[in-house]
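Run log, item B.
One chain of 169 residues. Sequence copied directly from the ordering sheet:
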Amino acid sequence: MKHLPSERHTLSILVDNEAGVLARIVGLFSARGYNIESLTVADVSDDSAVSRITLVTNGPPPVIDQIIAQLDRLVPVHRVVDLTDFGPHVEREMALVKVAGSGEKRVEALRLADIFRARPVDTSTKSFVFEVSGSTEKVNQFIALMREVGLVEVARTGVVAIARGAEAV
């Protein structure tokens, strides 16, 4: 059998906002050996009844199709949309990046932060905490450069995504 290449897919999953829903979805992935690269959850309705789970995973197209079909069968799931296949969409991620250093390294960290439009949200004489947002690639690149000037710690939100256009997906 021919080996199919793995593809990155961003899924938008609307679910009932109730206890145990996230555990059921993560359990589905775990039980079948699927990996979750990124996972974010937030309430998206006026009455707090519905949440959107944005999930990034990898797999060949038949596996992605199977994941979507299995998610669709879960009772608390209202709708699953593969934003990657749906069409144009916007993806963003945010990270807090702590960098320590002095002298030239401190100046370089500030210069790089300016280039990436990262905002210092905390500063002391020995360290900075920068807030950087954008595509996953941009965040990864910023973190990689900060490793060279004194990276201490990183906290990331995970990917949030939404389809382009006037209609809700």
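Observations after the first pass:
- The helical segments are 21-32, 61-73, 83-86, 104-115, 136-147.
- The radius of gyration is 19 Å.
Flagged for discussion on Thursday.
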